[in-house]
Structures are given as structure tokens and as C-alpha cells.
Amino acid sequence: MPIKKKITTTSIKQLRIEDKRINDTEILGFHARISSAGRIVYYLFYRFDGKQVNYKLGNATDITPAQARDLAKEKAGQVAKGNDVHEEKKQVRQETQRRKHLKLPVYLDERYLPFLITRNPKTANRIVNHIKSRFAFLMDKELDQITPWEIEKWRSEQRQKGRTPSTINHSVNSLKGALSRAVEWGLIDSHELSKVKTIKADNIRVRYLNESEEKRLRHAIKLRDMNARAARRSANEHREIRGYEQFPSLDDVTFVDYVEPLILLAMNTGLRRGELLSLAWSDIYFTERYLQVRGGNAKSKQGRTIPLNNEAYNALFNWREQNQKATYVFEGKAGVPLTEVKKPWGMVMKMAEIEEFNFHDLRHHFASKLVMAGVDLNTVRELLGHADLKMTLRYAHLAPEHKAAAVSLIG
User: I need a surface site. Which of 6, 15, 304, 310 has the fewest CB within 10 A?
Assistant: First the structure.
């Protein structure tokens, strides 16, 4: 016969194998069983919709009698409210098992992307696509199967391909961020990518155009426009012969498309690509001759104003004349800002025969020309939108005459 006693530390110590079970005298259904091997397990017996259920509370090696009692009270209360705690536990276990087998691409598409969209819809798809592209070899992996060794091996391969430390760090940090959210949401218990330390490197690459390269760039832009105009004339002649409606002429406009005004504006304002492509015409103040970078579009989240010099002003003024109904300065289609300039930029670089010069380097070109013209570094910092002077100091070496002038003051 089972023993009827209050389940306590003392009564559990006194429980013998031949006793088989103790039924608690205070909480209905709360009991402890002992196996033939001496293993003790706490349970809560209850009836739900006519079925008998023995709900496991825990092993005596894991929880104390007092903890088992508290848990039995809690679960009995939930049953009294109409909850089948055993079925709920079963569903949680099934969900946990399903989550453990969640593969990276499914997680990125179904969980992480919707989350990123709520944070910043402009960058959400780019982040997810970046992870998928850089870590394609992980796309058949379950979340908890991704190991530091695999990432270290990938980093080594990327270094051999000539990738910069900052580019590699950005990719790894993007993946870390995704996995950290999975941990936060309970999809996995943990991830070990914190063991993959950031590559420390001197990241002060400053690539700007020399005088010859800048001339070739400007010539390539004009040559591209000339070719586009010639191609349009040829196409219209073709269509006229066949009686087709002609395309709009490119001979009567300043710019054949967005490429030339975009490059001229980048060269004369130092704006980041994202800041340029996010510009709306409402951000351009022609009368006052400046443009406004809004905080939401700036990397530092701090807004700033940039004066327009003659070349920037004229480029914007003429481009506006051609796009009077547009909302954004550079649109991919009506009412939607442009998102990518890689293909036309690559074509211009090829025509100009300029190597290892990215679109972002136009920002360095702008800053470098300012410093070499004698503009103080703090003003350069403000124009670039740097949070502090540390980033701007990379251009200090371009102004040796300033250092010489400073030393001469005490000579």
C-alpha cells in the first residue's frame, strides 16, 4: 500500500523501494514514486476531460521536495482553470524539437527578415541577402550546427581572396546579430560565434583620385552620355523608318540619366551612397543653396546640412528641370528611390581605366580635396558627418603644410 504522508525532505529520505510511492496528504494528486533502482520522481495526478493524467514534475536529483510542492500547487491551479498542463508541456516539447531543427535560410526568411523590416525596412532585405550571399555554405545548416571553426575557415579563405578586414568583420557581425536574435527568441539555447573575435587591422584606407584620374573620370562620364545619345538617335531613326513611335530625344537634355548628376553630387558633397539615394527633392534648398541630410538617413543618425558649390548646384538644378514630378532626387521607378549603382559605376570605371576605386571612395576624394585646399579638419568632420574627429584624422597626412606652419610659429 502507498504511504500517505506530507512530502518533505525527511519523508523522502525515509522512502524505501518496497514502499513504491508516497501520496501527499495536503495537495490532491501530488505524489513521489521510487523505482526498483532507487530513483525518485515527483508527479501530479489529475483528471482532464475524463482522461487520467500523470504529470511529471521532476526528478528528486534535480528539485527539492519543497520545489516539487510549489510546482504541484502551480500546476494544480492551472488544471483547475481548465488547462491541460500535460498537453501544453507536450506541445512545448514538440515546438522545441522543431526549433532545434530550424535551418538558417528558413529562419532568415520567416523570423529574422520580418523583424528587420519593423526596425528599418530600407536595409532589411539587404542584410538578409548579404548573409545568404556571404555564407551560402551554411544554408543547409540548422541554427545550432553553425560552429566557430566553419567561420574561421571562411575568414581565412576571404583573406586569401584579398577581402579587407572591415568587409570580413561586417559579414561576420551580420551573422552574429542574426544568431543572437535567435537565442533571444528562444529558438536556440546559445551560439558560439562570440569565440570568433573581430579582426584587428589598420583600417585607414584613403583612396582618392589624382588629377589625371579625375580628368579621366569626367571624360568617361561625358563619353558615356555621348554614346547614349548616339544610340538613342540610331534607335529613333530605325523606328521612324518602320513607322513606330519614337523614344524621347536625349539631345535636348543636360543628362541622359541619373549617373552623371549622382557622381557630380557625390564628388562635391561627400555624402555616403545611402544618404545620396535617400535624398528627396524636399531636402534640396535651391534658394539657400544647401541640401539637408535627415537624421533617419544618416549613418550617425544625426542630421546635417551641406552647402552646394556651383557644380553641385548646377547638377541638381538641371536634373530637377528634367524630373519635375519626381519625389526622390534619384529614382529607380516613379516614387521609389534608387537602391543600387554598382553596374553603371563599374562601366564608368572601366571606361576611365581607373582601378581599385569604389563609389564610396568619392567621399574620400571630397574630403581629401578639402584638406589639401586648407580646410580645417573639424569642418571636414562636420561636412562628412563623423561623430568624432578620430575618423577624420585619416586625412591629416594630406595637409603637411599645416604642420609646417604650426612648427614655424615657435621657430
Answer: 310
